[in-house]
Amino acid sequence: MAWEPETSPTDRRTVRLYNVWPSFPSISISGSSCGLGCGHCSGRFLSFMKDAEDPAGLRNLLITSDGGIREEARGALISGGYDSQGRLMNLDEFLPAVQELRESGLIIKLHTGFVDQATAARIADAVDIASMEMVSEITVIRHLYHLDATPETYLDTFRNLRDAGVSHIAPHICLGLPHSSEEYVEWCLEMLAEEIQPSTISFILFTPTEGTPSEGHNPPSPNLVEHAFARAKWTFPGVKTILGAVRPRGAAFESEPSKGGASDRRHEVEMAAIKGGADGIEVPARSTIGRLTARGHHLVRVDSFGVLPIELEGKVNVEEVH
Ligand code: SF4
């Protein structure tokens, strides 16, 4: 069957509005250290996360001294810098504490980095959701991520997570990356589709970041965003797709004054995701919520990260908005 993009939806389908903070903090288990220095980040993303200096520090961020879960916490994203082989730094040391957090009732999502079969088996016991970026082009891997790896290396990690029985696998794909071609998204989706049944596919957007080698590269266009979601829906019917929180908001759009103000562009990108068929948006703009309300969508606010499986929504705050 030939692929064709969806037409603009005028249906009243459900859209989930994910409110990530404060119930699902992002925590770095490597502090501000990263051994990769990717061209679009240079380690700066880590500054938006809470630091866990050691496994005890990680527990203390989420659990009180008497073993209770800290007020507001429902789960966490555990991430950090990667080493020069693309592995999450300090993962071995922190995994027992991560498992303890999960056993205390918190919902845990882990950015795994590359993992072998043995580590994947330990991850399967320790987390609810394993998240990993899919990268389909060697130019991006070499020139942006500085890794001596191939797209197959990424797939190997997804296979290891699948074979280990990880409950939920949530690939994320970054749109608009420097060095990527027009086919980048399609290849990511096709490679995944041959091997993996994801619970959610999350799209994040390249964000020009001051002080990095890629600061002058433009963020992805609304057209690219719409196309990516439509393509994901076609490749993975029935799989939830979301627009992740990692995307330009404000200053990153200032270099494109001819295209309208920053908030207009943010709204435009979010609406493009919905037009492509997105099931949810992390931290949507108010203007987007207003527009979706006016269009009659069924809106549900979920206080969690967007990769939360629908069957786990009973563990978090969920509110009908419209
Ligand atoms: S591995 Fe992650 S934290 Fe390190 S530079 Fe790359 S994107 Fe940034």
Would you write up a description of this structure?
The protein is α/β, with parallel strands linked by helices and 322 residues long. The chain has a single domain (14-320), classed as TIM Barrel (Alpha-Beta Barrel). Helices cover 31% and strands 17% of the residues. It contains 9 helices and 12 strands. It has helices spanning 55-62, 91-103, 117-126, 138-143, 151-164, 184-195, 222-235, 262-276, 286-294; strands at 14-18, 26-28, 50-51, 75-79, 107-111, 129-133, 168-175, 200-205, 240-243, 280-282, 298-302, 318-320. Helix 1 (55-62) packs parallel to helix 2 (91-103), helix 2 (91-103) packs parallel to helix 3 and helix 3 (117-126) crosses helix 5. The radius of gyration is 19 Å and the shape is globular. Residues 1-9 and 251-258 have low confidence and may be disordered. It binds iron/sulfur cluster. The site of iron/sulfur cluster (SF4) has 11 residues, from loops. Iron/sulfur cluster (SF4) binds next to loops.
